[in-house]
Known about the structure:
Strand order of the largest sheet: 1-6-5-4
Shape: elongated
Number of domains: 1
Oligomer: single chain
Amino acid sequence: MQSYDPSKLRDVSVPLKDIASAGLMLLSLVLAVVPLIPHVLRWGFEAGFNGQGYLLGVIAFVVLIIAHEGMHALGWILFAGVPASAIRFGIMWKTLSPYAHSTVAMRASGYRVGVILPLIFTGILPVIVGTALNLGWLTAAGAVLVSGAIGDLLVLWVIRAVPGRALVIDHPEKPGCYVVEDSFDPTP
């Protein structure tokens, strides 16, 4: 990780226990169910949620989880100028959570794009395609990924006041980042 004066870093991250709170778990459940409603209304419940669809759904889920982390990396590379060599992938074994992590600072605006891309491309887009084509397994996998983006949405919420031009450093252990306090002029 780049070297910055620790006294100039403000921690803007989310403790993992907060993500597992009852309120967020309920919101996560809602985010998993709501995307299924259009599919069920259009095609009925049995139409796309049976037979070989279960196996395809599990496969899609695994592929989309990997793609989710890849989308974080791609967003930071394309929109924040992070070199690919500065991206690390892994699994937080304590929570069994896969992660993508940037080891270099980036502008908050590009960081935000990298945080939101997985929701769009591995959650919302599969739900839309699955619903349009009556692929219940894809709709269900996408719905789970929409729900799984609750941590990403929470990160966007906690960094909402960080100016886009500020430098941020992806937190190495928790969802969120450090803001490099002297990286921007707070006056407009």
